[in-house]
Amino acid sequence: MTTPNKTPPGADPKQLERTGTVREIGSQAVWSLSSCKPGFGVDQLRDDNLETYWQSDGSQPHLVNIQFRRKTTVKTLCIYADYKSDESYTPSKISVRVGNNFHNLQEIRKYKTKCE
């Protein structure tokens, strides 16, 4: 999502999109996953249904790659993680990396997600 102003933490991204505060640009990208179980892939990750999700199937690290066809400025990234619903599949850390290709990615943000 892109936004001209700082988005408040905890804001509902769908509401912000409806009011024109942000614009969803994920559909302009090519999405890929390091692994997934059948029926738990990119489509479920992106379908706006909180009951469906991506489930990895393989060794760590588990990666979601979002590649835009041309240079794109992303100002806001919204990720929904629900530790209380299923702690075994909720990531404990999320790393956001950017670059011109997969081989020159640099970490710009790191988040801890689990409630301790």
Keywords:
ubl conjugation pathway; cell cycle; mainly beta; two-stranded antiparallel sheet; cell division; 116 residues; APC_su10/DOC_dom
Description:
The longest helix is centred in the first third of the chain and has 6 residues, at 13-18. With 116 residues, the chain is mainly beta. It has two helices and four strands. The strands form two sheets. A two-stranded antiparallel sheet has the order 1-2. It has a two-stranded antiparallel ribbon with strand order 3-4.
Task: Compute the separation of the termini in Å.
Answer: 29 Å
Broad shape: globular
Strands of the biggest beta sheet: in what spatial order?
A: 1-2
Structural class: mainly beta
Share of helical residues: under 10%
In angstroms, what is the radius of gyration?
Answer: 15 Å
Number of strands: 4
Portion in strands: 15-25%
Helix/strand order: HEHEEE
Structure annotation, total helices: 2
What is the averaged pLDDT score? 84
Q: What about the largest sheet?
A: 2 strands, antiparallel
Q: Identify low-pLDDT runs.
A: none
Pfam families: ANAPC10 (PF03256)
Family: Belongs to the APC10 family.
Domain DOC: 1-116
InterPro entries: APC10/Doc1 (IPR016901), APC_su10/DOC_dom (IPR004939), Galactose-bd-like_sf (IPR008979)
Q: Which helices and strands appear, and what pairs or packs with what?
A:
Blueprint: H1 13-18, E1 29-33, H2 42-46, E2 64-68, E3 93-98, E4 106-112
Antiparallel strand pairs: 1-2, 3-4
